[in-house]
Amino acid sequence: MTDTTKPIINPRDLELDHWTQGSFFESRDAAFGALLGLKDLGIGYGEVPPGKSGCPFHNHHVEEELFIILEGEGTYRLGDKRHAVGPGDILGAPAGGPETAHHLVNTGTVPLKYLSISTMAATEICEYPDSGKFLAKTRGPGGERRFRFIGRSGGAVDYWDGEPGA
User: Fold this and answer.
1) Which residues are CB-contacts of 54 (< 8 A; sequence separation ≥ 6)?
2) Taken in order 55, 34, 125, 96, is the CA torsion positive or negative?
3) Which one, of 147, 144, 131, 122, lies nearest residue 61 by Cα?
4) Is residue 109 very low, low, confident or very high in pLDDT (cuts 50, 70, 90)?
5) Which residues pair with residue 21 across a beta bridge?
6) Residue range 113-129: mean pLDDT, rounded
């Protein structure tokens, strides 16, 4: 433990970041694994308003995620299925292809509050099946961002493209 880490955190004490994107995405959330001294496990707390989602439908190729519903009701979209969820439900999002793509939508009348827990891979590829995007990213020691690229496969080039003498 360092001077900036704590052994215990209560979500009500977190300073939440409020953001919106378009008409469907909105959340008040905070990541706090590092505050607990964790390096390989990410932990977040989120509050999503009724009718909204905190992230696009996506799948991870390396990282696994777990969600614990604390308050509210929603729909957990996992692959091609949808599941009603509520307080006490624990949701798994294993690494894989589009069959493991997932996101939560608040279908209730009060904020959907949940914890998210994930492995913190040094290298990750995410896909977004609804929009055809992908994300490639790497993290260095301590979790700092080293590389991050979001794009679509339609912009692919040959392996040798642009190489001197190729």
Assistant:
1) 25, 26, 27, 29, 46, 48, 103, 104
2) negative
3) 122
4) very high
5) 25
6) 97
pLDDT in tens, 133-146: 999 999 987 678 89
Q: Would you say residue 1 has pLDDT above 90?
A: no
What domains, with CATH codes, occur in the chain? 11-121 (2.60.120.10)
d(CA 75, CA 53): 10
- CA 95/CA 48 separation, integer angstroms: 24
- Statement: residue 84 has pLDDT above 60: yes
Per-position b or e across 32-67, b if 16+ CB within 10 A of its CB: bbbeeeeeeebbbbbbbbbebbbbbbbbbbebebeb
Distance, CA of 94 to CA of 91 (rounded, Å): 10
Structure pTM? 0.91
Q: Per the structure block, which two tokens stand in for 126?
A: 């995410």
pLDDT band at 154 (very low <50, low <70, confident <90, very high): confident
